[in-house]
């Protein structure tokens, strides 16, 4: 569909390809950060707070 349109300026297609690839890279980085970094850190914080709370209750 979009291939029927003329480029707004010479090289616009190449610029669009670069922008699309950067968007894919950013999306991949965000997903990676959530799965590899944030989820384990959240689990560690939860287990720490649970252990800390139970230690306070037993005092």
Explain what this protein looks like in three dimensions:
The termini are far apart. The model has no long low-confidence stretch (mean pLDDT about 90). The chain has 1 helix and no strands. It has a domain at about 30-59. The longest helix is centred in the middle third of the chain and has 47 residues, at about 10-59. The chain has one helix spanning about 10-59. About 80% of the residues lie in helices and about 0% in strands. It is an all-alpha fold and about 60 residues long. Keywords: Membrane, Transmembrane, Transmembrane helix.
Largest sheet: none
- What is the number of strand segments? 0
- pLDDT < 50 stretches: none
What gap, in angstroms, lies between the N and C termini? 69 Å
Helix share bin:
over 70%
Number of helices: 1
Determine the strand fraction and express it as a percent band. under 5%
Question: Which structural class is indicated by helix and strand composition?
Answer: mainly alpha
User: Which value, in Å, is the CA radius of gyration?
Assistant: 24 Å
Mean pLDDT: 88
Order of helices and strands: H
Principal-axis shape: rod-shaped
């Amino acid at each position: 569909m979009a291939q029927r349109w003329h480029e707004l300026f010479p090289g616009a297609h190449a610029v669009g390809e670069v922008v699309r690839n950067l968007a894919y890279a950013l999306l991949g980085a965000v997903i990676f950060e959530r799965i590899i970094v944030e989820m384990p850190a959240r689990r560690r914080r939860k287990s720490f707070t649970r252990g800390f709370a139970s230690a306070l209750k037993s005092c």
